[in-house]
Specification:
Layout: H1 3-28, H2 36-62, H3 66-83
Helix pairs in contact: 1-2, 2-3
Length: 84
């Protein structure tokens, strides 16, 4: 895949992940507290958040925003720790 094509698709993938995180987080509120459904949906929400922040970190690194990129990597790592 060429770099130009990758850079064109990256913002779309980031948006899908972060919107998916928001939608699944809100959907989890429809389930009873501590139910399997709520935990399952929120785990997928966390996965979307980690993927979105990792992709955004990659985009920022490619745009030479290294400190901001490191911040999004830390967000992804922090969410992964909470997830486990």
């Amino acid at each position: 895949m060429s770099l130009e094509r990758e850079e064109r698709h990256l913002p779309i993938m980031i948006a899908i992940c972060l919107v998916g995180n928001f939608v699944l987080g809100a959907l989890g509120l429809a389930f009873p507290n501590d139910s399997f459904g709520q935990l399952f949906v929120w785990q997928w929400s966390s996965l979307f958040f980690m993927a979105g922040t990792s992709l955004y970190a990659a985009k920022l690194h490619a745009d030479r925003w290294h400190i901001s990129s490191a911040g999004f990597i830390l967000l992804s790592i922090g969410q992964g720790i909470i997830y486990t």
